[in-house]
């Protein structure tokens, strides 16, 4: 089982969009996928067709017990009509925001509850959609993850935001004997504008070997699929097949071994111009 945390302390960069895109292509390939929605905004939950869940991630964290997530994980709206092996969901709700202060009162296990709750879960891939902050919810995700996916947009503040989350991941890695690894930096919503290309190039220059290629292009189909609670792999609209193909390529990079992933990204970064000319 590989546990991927999708993170960035900056909000509005499309972490949930990327998390759902990766979940969809992984499930389409036959992997057993579990999405853990750790964001109180619950966008991954509604994006997978679940509203007003009665049992949520908050219940598993409050239980403070090994394997407690097993009683939370269930079917989503992405059912068997879309996949042979439909992805499962550990849903969130706004009440999850009240769990963070509760965790802060635990001097021993505050950072480790999510990791313990996932013990015994049967899956090939667990994708954790983190909130846009470095509170105890995100820290729990980083303590539970094997690898971290940093999602960013090509914008003026992207480089600073990525630097900040990389520093904090490094601090946690020092306490976890080198874990989690950095799976890569995914540039999301890359538009065909001079400004977007410039900031994308700045990210590649600032973090050689870490920026995943291809970037995820800015496409209306991706946002519309999420708004309609459909997986991008089943959404019938112009651009959806191309978006799914990009997520598929990104997932291949992110789930490689750290050494192989670094080699592949270094090689593709040197051919960076090709990705910018990809059709939108």
Give the SSE layout.
Elements (H helix, E strand, L loop, with lengths): L1 E6 L7 H14 L4 E5 L5 H5 L9 H7 L10 E2 L12 E3 L8 H6 L8 H5 L7 E5 L6 H9 L2 E6 L5 H18 L5 E10 L3 H13 L9 E2 L2 H8 L12 H15 L3 H12 L3 H4 L4
Parallel strand pairs: 1-5, 1-6, 2-4, 2-5, 6-7, 7-8
Antiparallel strand pairs: 3-4
Question: What would you say this structure looks like, in words?
Answer:
It is built from 12 helices and 8 strands. It has 280 residues and is of the alpha/beta class. It has a single domain, classed as 3-Layer(aba) Sandwich (Rossmann fold), CATH 3.40.50. It has an 8-stranded mixed β-sheet with strand order 3-4-2-5-1-6-7-8, sandwiched between helices. Strand 7, helix 8 and strand 8 form a beta-alpha-beta unit. The two termini are 34 Å apart. 50% of the residues are buried.
